[in-house]
């Protein structure tokens, strides 16, 4: 599995800031677009893409509960997202760009993300594109000698845990409704009724 050159830049980019070039323009100047063809880590606004990136592949980043997401329909054309948990947010299937913190405690789960340990649904291996990137880089580096493979695993796991500790997240309030996709979920047969009152 080859890591696309734009993927690391995408995951490191800060979105939803006002464009430096088009700050006096309308609400389209919010930077929520990313060009896959350019060798830049800058988020783009609608004016930037219409002028300089007209014939480039551009994807739109959206936000859910202070975390960046991308629609599955946009990203699966350019990246294999198999194994990454998808969610339905505002009636669109999305994946999260980077890992998210999980509250400590709670009930035990049998399926967790292979990188950060976040609880997942049974068929998924990663909670975000960032966690899948760690495994993709490990596999890419495993073509070398056995000794270098051990060093790579150690350094990538320590850097991922270090970056996890250094991230600052929002207050966790829910803006959108997040519903994980569950393939074998059983629905209740009906609405429970109260027992009749005896007189």
Verbal overview:
This protein has 199 residues and is of the alpha+beta class. The chain is 26% helix and 13% strand. It contains five helices and six strands, in the order H-E-H-E-E-H-E-E-H-H-E. A six-stranded antiparallel sheet has the order 1-2-3-5-4-6. A hairpin with a 2-residue loop joins strand 4 and strand 5. The longest helix has 21 residues.
Structural descriptors:
alpha+beta, six-stranded antiparallel beta sheet, 199 residues
Percent strand equals 5-15%
Number of strands: 6
Give Rg in angstroms: 20 Å
C-alpha end-to-end distance:
71 Å
How would a textbook summarize the main sheet? 6 strands, antiparallel
Mean pLDDT: 76
Biggest sheet, spatial arrangement of strands? 1-2-3-5-4-6
The helix/strand order is HEHEEHEEHHE
Basic shape: globular
Low-pLDDT residue intervals, each spanning 5 or more residues: 149-154, 157-176
The helix tally amounts to 5
* Class from secondary-structure proportions: alpha+beta
| Helix amount | 25-40%
